[in-house]
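Sync notes, pocket subgroup
Present: LS, DG
LS reminded everyone that the earlier model was apo-only. Rerun requested with zinc ion included. Inputs:
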Amino acid sequence: MAVPIRTCAGCGRKAPRIELLRFAAVNGVLKAVPESRGRGAYTCALAPCFERALSAKSFSRALRTAVRVDPALRDLYTDADG
Ligand SMILES: [Zn+2]
């Protein structure tokens, strides 16, 4: 059974697609989109990965287009502390 492997845009970890959050560019804005046509960007469900992907502009790089990232997307993530 082939499980698609994707790479976290934050830490670079490779993981089964189902373990990662998927994003896509919607009208130039980064949106959490489980499935869509075209390019997706993936991260682990951990806040540090989001922060790192954000600061390194990894979302724009992964999607090959400039995207605006709403910091509220951070709410999708689990904090690593605790
Ligand atoms: Zn990660």
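DG: The radius of gyration is 12 Å.
LS: The chain has one domain: 5-76.
Action: DG to write up.
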